[in-house]
C-alpha cells in the first residue's frame, strides 16, 4: 500500500517488541502523534526510546501490535516508499567520503539550488560559509572532520532536501559546545516545523516546541501529555 498524501499522523497501537533472545524492549505501547506535531520521548538509558523510534522506518518489526502512518500499517508499505516519507536521524550519523553537498544529497542528482535552500532553511548559511570550501568542503577520510553536532546538521539537511513528512530524531548524547548546540536545536526546530516528529530528547531545550511528551520506563509509556503537565 501507499501512504496517503499530506501530513501523516503516527500511531503506535498495543506495540510489543523484543530483540532476538531478549525480554520485551517495548510492551503495551499506545501512543498517537497527531499530524504536524512533535512528540518528545524521554526516559532513562535503556528504556526503549531508540527502539520505539526505529519501528517507524521499519528498521525493526513489531512482535505484536502495529505502527500506523496516516492509518496505514508500516508493514504494508513498500519499503522504498516508506523511507522516502520517513526521515531518521540516529545517534550516529554516517559521513561519506565526498563533499558536504554530496553528503547532503547522498549523491542523488539534485540541483545545487535545492541544497542551498535546505541549508538556508535550517539556518546554516554561516556554518557552511565558515567551512574551508563551503558546500564543496571535502569530508570523510583525509578531509575535514565534523563534530558530532555538525554531523547532526548534515543529517538534518539530508532529510530536508528529500522533504520527508515524518521526522524521527534520536539525539546524540555527546556533549556539544554552546554554539553548536544552539545551531542544532534551532535547525531541528526548523526541520520539525510542519512535519510530524518523534524526538528522542536528552536535552530539555529540544523538548520545548514538542506539543506532547511521552515518558518511557522499561519499555512502557508511563506518562504522556502536554509538556506543561509533566
Ligand atoms: P539510550 O538513552 O541509552 O539511548 P534507549 O532508551 O534508546 O537508551 P534502547 O536502545 O531502545 O534504549 O534499548 C532498549 C532495550 O533494548 C535495552 O534493554 C537495550 O539493552 C536493548 N537493546 C537495544 N538495542 C539492542 C540490540 N540491537 N540487541 C539487543 N538488545 C538491544
Ligand atoms: Mg537510544
TrEMBL record:
Parent sequence residues shown: 335 to 564 of 1172
Species lineage: Bacteria, Bacillati, Actinomycetota, Actinomycetes, Micrococcales
Native source species: Terrabacter lapilli
Subcellular location: Cell membrane
Protein name, entry field: ATP-binding cassette domain-containing protein
Domain ABC transporter: 10-230
Amino acid at each position: 500500500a501507499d501512504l496517503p498524501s499530506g501530513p501523516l499522523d503516527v500511531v503506535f497501537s498495543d506495540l510489543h517488541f523484543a530483540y532476538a533472545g531478549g525480554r520485551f524492549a517495548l510492551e503495551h505501547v499506545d501512543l498517537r502523534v497527531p499530524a504536524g506535531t512533535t512528540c518528545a520521548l524521554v526516559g532513562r538509558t535503556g528504556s526503549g526510546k531508540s527502539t520505539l523510534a526505529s519501528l517507524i522506518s521499519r528498521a525493526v518489526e513489531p512482535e505484536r501490535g502495529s505502527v500506523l502512518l496516516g492509518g496505514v500499517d508500516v508493514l504494508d508499505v513498500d519499503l522504498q516508499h516508506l523511507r522516502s516519507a520517513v526521515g531518521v536521524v540516529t545517534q550516529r550519523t554516517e559521513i561519506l567520503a565526498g563533499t558536504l553537498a554530496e553528503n547532503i544529497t547522498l549523491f542523488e542528482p539534485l540541483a545545487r539550488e535545492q541544497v542551498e535552500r535546505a541549508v538556508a532553511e535550517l539556518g546554516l548559511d554561516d556554518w557552511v560559509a565558515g567551512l574551508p570550501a563551503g558546500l564543496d568542503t571535502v569530508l570523510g577520510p583525509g578531509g575535514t572532520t565534523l563534530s558530532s553536532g555538525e554531523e547532526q546538521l548534515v543529517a538534518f539537511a539530508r532529510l530536508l532536501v528529500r522533504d520527508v513528512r515524518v521526522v524521527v530524531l534520536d539525539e546524540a548524547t555527546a556533549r556539544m559546545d554552546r554554539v553548536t548546540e544552539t545551531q542544532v536545536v534551532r535547525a531541528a526546530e526548523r526541520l520539525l516545523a510542519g512535519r510530524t516528529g518523534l524526538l528522542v530528547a536528552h536535552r530539555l531545550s529540544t523538548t520545548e516546541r514538542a506539543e506532547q511528551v511521552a515518558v518511557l520506563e522499561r519499555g512502557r509509556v508511563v506518562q504522556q501529555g502536554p509538556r506543561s503537565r509533566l
